[in-house]
UniProtKB/TrEMBL annotation, chain A:
The chain crosses the membrane at residues 174-197. Keywords: Kinase, Membrane, Phosphoprotein, Transferase, Transmembrane, Transmembrane helix, Two-component regulatory system. Its EC number is 2.7.13.3. This is histidine kinase. Residues 210-266 form the PAS domain. It catalyses: ATP + protein L-histidine = ADP + protein N-phospho-L-histidine. It comes from Sphingomonas lenta. The keyword Membrane applies. It is an enzyme of class 2 (transferase). GO terms for cellular component: plasma membrane.
TrEMBL record, chain B:
Gene3D superfamilies: 3.40.50.2300. Keywords: Phosphoprotein. The keyword Phosphoprotein applies. The modification 4-aspartylphosphate is found at residue 54. This is Response regulatory domain-containing protein. GO terms for biological process: phosphorelay signal transduction system. SUPFAM superfamilies: CheY-like. Residues 4-121 form the Response regulatory domain.
Amino acid sequence: MVAATLAIHLLLAYVLDREFDHGVRAAEEAERSHQVRAALMDVLSVHRDVETGQRGYLLTGDPEFLQPYREARGVAEGTLRTLDGRLERGSPLASGVARLRELSRAKLDFADRTVALKAAGRPARARAAVASGRGKALMDAIRAQVAAMDRLERARLADRTAEEFRAHERTRTLSFLLLAGMAAMLTAAAVAIARAWDQRRRLHTRLRDAAARQQAILDSTTDAIISLNPSGSIESLNRAARAMFGYREDELLRRDVSVLFEIAPERGRAMSFADRLGLGEAGGGRTIDITGRRSDGAAVPTEVAVSPMALPSGVHAVAVVRDATERHRVDRLKREFISTVSHELRTPLTSIAGSLGLLAGGAAGPLPPRADRLVAIAHANSERLVRLVNDILDIEKIEAGEAQFDMRPVPLADLLGRTVEANGGYAQGFGVRLELAPVDDAAHVLGDPDRLTQVFTNLLSNAVKFSPAGGVVIVMASALDGCWRVSVSDQGPGIPEAFQPRLFDKFTQADGSDTRAKGGSGLGLSIVREIVARHGGRVSFDTAEGHGTTFHVDLPRADEPARPAASAAPLPRVLHVEDDVDMTRVVASALEGRAALTPAHSLRRARELVAAERFDLVILDIGLADGSGLDLLDACGRSAPVIVFTAQEAGAELAHRARVVLVKSRASIGRLVAAVDDALGLPKEAA
Amino acid sequence: MTARILYVDDEDDIREIAAMALELDPGFLVRDCGSGRAAVSLAAEWKPDLILLDVMMPEMDGPATLAALRAQAETADTPVAFITARAGRDDAERLAGLGACGIIAKPFDPMTLAAQVRALL
């Protein structure tokens, strides 16, 4: 639009300039035309004066008349020259002027001759010359020529004027159109500006409304909300924050957040608020407990959730702070209540369990068979109630951080041996056998032996409860990066996938009916997780429905990791042909420190490895994605012993061709380890 | 070997059951009483070989009773074991620090209580 307006401006200037030039030229033309016509009149008037003077002298003979005659006679040629000079180049009047000059010359000659005859005293001849009419005729011709030229000049001027008028009209129209266009454009621009301005105003209003609404929302929440710049300076805070900490907004803006919380002050390093809280960069969304500091110096327990807010100027943070005083009070009341109730429950339980125990134990003499059965049921359930109360107290204590842990190096072989032995009787009651794979005597973990016994007792008790009659529960220990992993494997039904996320929650078992059927409190795994967490370890599990479950407890090791590979003889090399990547990892971790495992996830890769390298042992799966492991059996069998580890049932023929055939399940890892030890001739360690 | 056991607990039912459980050991002579105050005077008179003291009792609790027992010449050296529903490890350590020779957790197993006590003697 700006360009169009500019173009119109330039065009208009050009048109007006041309119009001005036209005007000036038209005025000049008119002036010149007038001068031409005046010169024509001069020519005519001079010749009239000549004629008048000539006639006067001829009639009167008075030389007085010769005076004007001579004057006019003298300027006649001059008037013709003037006329000629006023004509423009190429004027149509130019030929007229030549004709006029001829007539003038003839007329003047004639007049001169008559005047000369009169002056020579021959008046009759002069009169006769005049009477001939030649002088009059010449004069008429001059007059006619002048009139004709005057008409021509007038017509020319009229033509010019008409043309100028038309040009002027065209210019006027064009100017009008251009001005109208410019006016339209200016109007459009004005409308556009007004609209943009209105839009801006509305946007501004909307932004202001949004900001006000947001502030109102922030101010109406009961949680304190503080926004911080990347280095932890306070940028904004809501009403609840001001109330919680007892400051005015201007007292806190641009101050470091350590004014409000007991955290490390900023030390000039570019350290984010999340870093300073120990949350790390990925700490967004997590809630942590920190002590806040009010303006009057009083401490406020708070829970703070920090979320990162990526802005062009860096990662800012929003901290949502909740006063945790009430929560702490309620937690304490809850713990006190649970503790009191549990202790109060123990008193009547002591009487009930004691009475039933004496009856069931025959202290009051033999009972009739049916009464004996009923007393046994009541006794078993009173004991279950005792366990439940004990578990509740335990977990409350551990969660509240009140439980004391007496940490020291614990020999794993001894701990696991005693726990397995202590639970042997319990397992027998379910027709389940407990098996402990050999544990390295040097294996020590850092922990509280009583608490760890509790952990493995709970895991064993679970494994036993979920094992089929005649099943085996295997306990084994393996070295893992910086820790010892104790695995407890059962041959039970596995954990349904839907249930897995809630596995460690309190009071859960796979379904409600199971809780009763298995007689657990539903707290066992919660206790396990809490205790292991307090040891700085972690609990995990592998499970497959129908194929059993293995729980792993990883505990920090208290011994020097055994490195037979580095110091003494190199580890025996074992090729593990298996297309299930998870299974290769499980086996690798189980054999860590015993053998150097090379996994091959396809038959093709296994063939390449067998051709290129030498192995001391091959663990071979049969059902592989790209073929059958049987095809590899003979190729391997020539150079190294083979342990077939497969999900398929082994035929008798296979048993002849391989050293050992094991049917795969999570629970059979212990047997695999034993078979590997055996095949490699490793010394068996006493449990 | 015959041993005199004094069982002190404010709960009558538990006292009765404990007495029955202890008497499963034919070598035990058991008496019981329902308060710390009664226990202090009975112990001075009866001179038991071991006193089993409930911790939480009204008026005079287990530790106070122990202190009173230690304060009187007749019972100053009598072995005392606590029997308590609060048998957490920190509780056990606190009670052991008071000079008890053992801690038995409630609820106890009546069929093995006598053996536990025998081990303390």
